[in-house]
Structures are given as structure tokens and as C-alpha cells.
Design brief:
Number of helices: 10
Strand content: 5-15%
Helix content: 40-55%
Distance between the termini: 20 Å
Structural class: alpha/beta
Strand order of the largest sheet: 3-4-5-6-7
Radius of gyration: 22 Å
Number of strands: 7
Length: 249
């Protein structure tokens, strides 16, 4: 995810980056790449981006603190790692927590953003510019709400992929080949979501507009969610993801 975001961040005017990855390189002159903390050159840097697995933060990040200004904000994309826990590693400084999702890699993501009370306005503005380069941004005032963003948007692509997968399988059961089924399903989903996003109409009203009385769509909808099973499953899915995010704090 860090590499995906960096691919979008390079388009933020006036920004250059130093990235550390033991394996990967980045084919852009605005990004200096290093293999380890010992190899890093330059600085002091104005922003520390934490894009490692949560369980690695305490072991990895201290080696990089000497390369950033003492008051440089730390921007973390580590899911479930609260500001209080981050402060034990990076010290008392502005902390920006971001929860991006996978479509950020193509500039179509949605990211939740939380600023701790030490974050100055200029750091907030920069973080907004960076995340807007990867898609849309939802700011939250309470850190707990970022875990809720995780449950809805962070984990959301997984839900959508699973719905699409089962939809494709249903199309294949009707007799379509894999390629036909994928095109029918994915293009239907993409077009429908784009239509919904371009409209301010209530989603239930939009559903009803394509549902003729006693027609095919009504029959399908009754089978899909007539007894509320789909609504219950999505509620359970988001609540389970939120509960796990809280456990990981």
C-alpha cells in the first residue's frame, strides 16, 4: 500500500521523497530509494511516513527518527495502531493516521484521516493534498471513528470482490463462459456504481426505479434480500471488521 500511495503522491506539487525498501526500487526521479536505514542520505526530512506492518513499527521506525526533524509529523497507514501507541515509538510530535483502501493505487481510493491535537494546520493541508491525490478523503474527529472507516472502506474492497466473485459464479451457472460472466458482472457493477455516484437520489429510490412490479428484477431482489439476509450479513461483516480493528489497537 505504501508503494501504491507513493505512486500517487509524486504528483503533489513541490514534493520529493526518500523511500526505503530492501527489494523494490521506484522508477521516478522524485523518489530516492534506499535499501535500509543505514543507507539513507540527506535530511532532515519534513515528514515521516510509517508504511510497515503494525507488528514491525517498534522494531523498525526508531532507526529512521534521526533522519527527520524533531517536530516532523508522522503519517501512519498502519491499521489499528493508535496514536498513543505510535507516540511510544516516535515521541511527542504531530501524528496523522490514515486508513486508505486498495483503489488508491489507481487514484480511486477513499481514505479516512485523523489528526492528533499536535498537528498544525500546514501539516493537515499537506496530508489532505497527499491523500486527495489517491482519491477522496473523509476526515474524522475521533480516533475510534478511524477504526470504523477501516471496517467500511479499508476492508470494503474485500467485500466487493467477494460479492463480484459470487455474482460471476452465478452467471456461469446460467451458462456463460468465464470471460463473458466477468464482463457482464464487472461492467454492470461499474456502470451502476458510477450512475449512483453521479446522482443525489436515494439508493432505495434508484433501486425501485429499475424494479417493475412482478418483473424479473423484483423476483431477483426477493431472492437476494427478501428476508433481510443480505442486510444482516453486511451488518455482521462490518461489525466483525470493526471489532477486530479495536482488538489490534
Amino acid at each position: 500500500m505504501g508503494a501504491s500511495l507513493l505512486a500517487r503522491w509524486v504528483d503533489v506539487p513541490g514534493m520529493t521523497y526518500a523511500a526505503v525498501d530492501p527489494v523494490a526500487t521506484f522508477p521516478d526521479s522524485r523518489v530516492k530509494t534506499f535499501k535500509s536505514a543505514a543507507d539513507v542520505q540527506g535530511g532532515p526530512y519534513d515528514l515521516l511516513v510509517i508504511a510497515v506492518k503494525p507488528q514491525m513499527i517498534a522494531d523498525v521506525i526508531p532507526d529512521y527518527l534521526k533522519y527527520v526533524r524533531p517536530d516532523a509529523p508522522a503519517l501512519s497507514i498502519a491499521a489499528g495502531v493508535a496514536c498513543e501507541r505510535l507516540e511510544t515509538v516516535v515521541g511527542s510530535r504531530p501524528i496523522i493516521r490514515v486508513m486508505p483502501n486498495l483503489p488508491a493505487s489507481i487514484g480511486k481510493g477513499v481514505s479516512g484521516v485523523y489528526f492528533n491535537d499536535k498537528t498544525p494546520d500546514d501539516a493537515k493541508t499537506l496530508a489532505r493534498q497527499m491523500m486527495q491525490a489517491a482519491g477522496s478523503v473523509v476526515e474524522v474527529d475521533k480516533e475510534d471513528d478511524l477504526d470504523k472507516v477501516t471496517a467500511i472502506a479499508g476492508s470494503g474492497p474485500g467485500y466487493v470482490f467477494e460479492i463480484a466473485r459470487t455474482y460471476v459464479e452465478a452467471a456461469k451457472e446460467l451458462g456463460f463462459e468465464e470471460s463473458q460472466a466477468r464482463k457482464l458482472v464487472l461492467d454492470t457493477i461499474a456502470g451502476t456504481i458510477e450512475l449512483a455516484a453521479s446522482s443525489s437520489d436515494d439508493l432505495a429510490d434508484m433501486r425501485n426505479a429499475v424494479t417493475s412490479k412482478a418483473g424479473t428484477t423484483e423476483a431477483g431482489l426477493k431472492a437476494l434480500n427478501g428476508n433481510g439476509d443480505l442486510s444482516r450479513l453486511l451488518l455482521e461483516a462490518t461489525q466483525a471488521a470493526y471489532k477486530r480493528a479495536v482488538e489490534l489497537r
